[in-house]
Amino acid sequence: MLDTQRLACTTVAAVAGGRNLNATLAAVWPRHPQLTAQQRSAITDLCYGTLRFGIQLDAVLAQLLTKPVHDESLRWLLLVALYQLQYTRAAPYAVVDHAVRCAAVLGKPQAAGLTNAVLRNFLRKREALLAKAALTDSGRYAYPHWWIDKLRKQHPLHYAAILAAGNLHPPLTLRVNRRRTTRDDYIALLAQHDIAATAVGVDGATLSRAMPVERLPGFADGLASVQDAAAQYAAPLLDAQPGMRVLDACAAPGGKTTHLLEIADVDLTALDSDATRLERVRQNLQRLGLAASVLAGDAGNPVAWWDERPFDRILADVPCSASGVVRRHPDIKWLRRASDVAQFAAQQQRMLDSLWRLLASGGKLLYTTCSIFQEENSQQVADFLTRHSDAKLLPLCGVKTLDGTPDGQLLPDHEHDGFFYALLQKI
């Protein structure tokens, strides 16, 4: 446990300093080749959990300290240990013991004693400490104040449920490749391997418990892909018909690209500004036995890559705050700032206006984000319709939204992440 605590502590400290969690973890493993698969999994779980509840635990820690801890490595060690004590089944005595030993490694004489006192005091006064922390919104919901305030204003009927859903462990949902098998047959195949799954949507199957994809029967052979249930709406909504020229404008890592190709034989271009991430698109195409033109380019600057042939369908899954997938990426709570939302909205507007010029008359463009903030979603679309008199908003078949929620806005729940969809037609 000592190594897992120590490495989790340094990783979450790096994230709080502005680094992406997945990238930080990916850099940790080569530096520590002695770690077993079980240790890697434990470190990953500690990082995700600490970042998920860290804002709440920070409010608890403030009560346990007589003065702030200026050593960030010690502060994050305390938060990791508090997460273990509150949210895991680890033996409390072992958590405290290893944290004290880990603090001693930091080289400061008072660190071990402070760690011991803080953690044991938490165990004695846990309920009172958590109750007092919950008197503030951040301590209650474990989100930044600005995030909570925005959701309360934009989703007054649902903000508490949204925040709670974002703190859950996300489900592992698969999209069954209809070109290779049926959803029912694949669920039966999973059952033969003692893997329970339930049907969701048209092509989806949600596992009762998460597991490495390498253990899924037929995954390597292209029978299924990992894709959230809300993201699986995209390809059917775009209504791409055989022979159409289709653009997936922000394609990496390729989930929606491959779903489009599973549904219809189209002439598809998979575009992304990140040439490195496009390799994931190629790998997914190969695993699923599909073909597309894979192209590096900026959707907001078509002059550099477009051949001036219009597209019949365009999927614009644009960069966004990712506020709807925070349970999958809890580092977003620490990396996002209130000002970022307006910056994303400006980028989205540039992409939308540029891509609209590429759409054929009568063609359809599906605008989508994994955000739950209206500036990036319903307001973005309303502003677009004001600027473009040749655009018409079409109804979304099969997408059900909650009362008091803008059309096309899916809020995160036990079944899927938070997503937004708007289908536009050029008239």
- Per the principal axes of the C-alpha atoms, what is the gross shape? globular
Fraction in beta strands = 5-15%
Radius of gyration: 23 Å
> What structural class do helix, strand and pairing data support?
alpha/beta
Give the number of helices: 16
Which parts are unreliable, with pLDDT below 50 for 5 consecutive residues or more? none
What's the N-to-C terminus distance? Answer: 62 Å
Largest sheet: 8 strands, mixed
Helix proportion? 40-55%
Q: Secondary-structure element order, as H and E? A: HHHHHHHHHEHEEEHEHEHEEHHEHEEE
Mean pLDDT, as a whole number? Answer: 96
In total, the number of strands is 12
Short description:
With 427 residues, the protein is α/β, with parallel strands linked by helices. It has helices at 2-16, 21-31, 37-64, 72-87, 92-105, 109-133, 137-141, 145-154, 159-165, 183-192, 234-238, 255-263, 278-288, 332-335, 338-356, 378-387; strands at residues 173-176, 197-200, 204-207, 224-226, 245-248, 267-272, 293-296, 311-317, 359-369, 391-394, 409-410, 419-426.
Description:
- The chain is an alpha/beta fold and 427 residues long.
- It contains 16 helices and twelve strands.
- Strands 5, 6, 7, 8, 9, 10, 11 and 12 form an eight-stranded mixed β-sheet that branches.
- A hairpin with a 3-residue loop joins β2 and β3.
- α1 packs across α5, α3 packs across α4 and α3 crosses α6.
- The chain is globular.
- The model has no long low-confidence stretch (mean pLDDT 96).
Please specify the SSE layout and strand pairing.
Elements lengths: L1 H15 L4 H11 L5 H28 L7 H16 L4 H14 L3 H25 L3 H5 L3 H10 L4 H7 L7 E4 L6 H10 L4 E4 L3 E4 L16 E3 L7 H5 L6 E4 L6 H9 L3 E6 L5 H11 L4 E4 L14 E7 L14 H4 L2 H19 L2 E11 L8 H10 L3 E4 L14 E2 L8 E8 L1
Helix pairs in contact: 1-2, 1-3, 1-4, 1-5, 3-4, 3-6, 4-5, 4-6, 5-6, 8-9
